[in-house]
Every structure is written in structure tokens, then in C-alpha cells.
Amino acid sequence: MKRGKMNLLIAAVILIIVVAGSSVVLLTQPNSEVAEKEVTSVEEEYAVIETKYGKMVMKFFSENAPGHVQNFKNLTKQGFYDETTFHRVIPGFMIQGGDPNSKDDDRANDGIGGPGYSISAEFNDISHKRGIVSMARSQDPNSAGSQFFIVVKSYPSLDHQYTVFGEIIEGMDVADKIVAEPRDALDNPLTKVEMKIIITTTP
Fold first, then answer.
1. pLDDT computed for residue 18 by the predictor
2. Span 57-80, mean pLDDT?
3. CA neighbours within 13 Å on the CB side: how many for 129?
């Protein structure tokens, strides 16, 4: 009798272990699937720069210039760039914009404004080929804030001097039209070319 009771006890313990093990599998499996879905659901973000000539779509180099990318996204989501202009255009070189001063009618102050702070340089190995988006700055390497420029012709001499943080992947014909705008002695277009920028996962 004692041996029979012992066998029943052992069987009961084994059953509990099996059931418990099955429960663990059932509980952990859905969590793994959820975690996997969360990882795969992260979508790449793009910037869409809208102008009177059409739109330009920019991809970001987050791994190469994470601080600049985040700064640009933050300013964009705040509406900082809306109604600013491309205030400097140089054929065969680049178009520059992102100065809040360009919103007013005083052309003399265009090119000296910013967000009220500066960010540290993140010079990298991406070359300034046609379509590259890079941050404008003063002589201080760590003086970039909001102004950026789009290269319309490759300029490798700018490499490691300015922080590359993006590239136009669609709409460089728009940049070509902007850079051809009639301009004054300061390379400021005679007619304003305003922009509106949005961040999206579906450009």
C-alpha cells in the first residue's frame, strides 16, 4: 500500500511539472511574438520639403549624424521651417535655407538666424556629392543650428568640414529650379522660395 501511494504521489508530481512547463510555454510564446512585432514595426522616417516647384524627399543618415537628424526632426515637427525660404542659391554649388529670419521682409538679416542654440559637429565620411543635405555653420565647427544646404553639384572639398545628415532621393529637379532663380548680390533669390517640411514614413 505504501508503495502504491508513493507511485501515485510521484505520478502526481510529474503531472504538475508537465502542466506547469506547458503553462510557461503558453505564457512566454505570445510575449516573444509581441516583442518581435514591435521590432519589425519600426518604420524609416523621411523628410518631405514642399516648395512652389514641387517636393524633395530626403532620407536621413541617423547612424552617421544622430544628433543632427534628431535636431532636424524636432524642429520640423515644431513647424520651425514652415514659411522659411531658400535664402542663398549659388548655381553649380548649392541651395541653402532654414533661417527663421527669412520669414520677414528684411532681406538684410537672412542667413544669420537660427533656433537660439547650436549643436556639436558630427563630421563623417559621407562625401558631399550631388543631392547631399548638410548643415550650414559659421567658422565655429560647433555652431550649426537650423540652417542647411543641398548640394546640386558634387563638392568633396566640403567633406569633414560640414556635417552630412541626409540625402535627397527624389526631387533634385526641384533643387535645380531653385538654384536657377534670379538672385541679388548676396545670392538671395529676388522672389521668395518658401518651404514647408513634414516628417513621414510614406513619402
1. 43
2. 98
3. 6
